[in-house]
Amino acid sequence: SKPLVRVPQNGAIVVVAKCPIPGKSKTRLIPLLGEDGTVELARSMLSDVLLTLDGCPALENVHKILLYAPGNDTGLTIMKGIVNQLHLSLVKESSHHNKGPFSSSARTGDKLGWDLLPMLEGDLKASDLGSKLEDALVKARKIMDTNQSRVGG
What we know:
Blueprint: E1 12-18, H1 30-54, E2 63-69, H2 73-85, E3 92-93, E4 102-103, E5 107-108, E6 111-112, E7 114-118, H3 129-150
Parallel strand pairs: 1-2, 2-7
Antiparallel strand pairs: 3-4, 5-6
């Protein structure tokens, strides 16, 4: 196995995603696809985005963050399962959030891995979505600042 090598990062990209959950994913398509079908569609769509970003050579030095909802243990379990199934890199557990998102402050192989960052709990359709995204931005910047200090940036 290759040793972990820390490198300076060139910015960040954040993917905001709802976890594929029966009865909660692509609900307008349930009459056509059923609950299981909509979960599979949502999982496939998210997988396509994650694999495309992860495989893009121009993004190798860009920090990748998956902001997920619901931001609870169920959400973390679902998103870890998807990322692991896709064989994407999650290097270690992070202390950036008290719910324990997974962080990739080091490199594995030729590219940076992924951070899983939980979104604040609550209704995503509610008017407080802006405050949830703002909270996520603050947390993402904290992760970036922490990682930059580790690499001497």
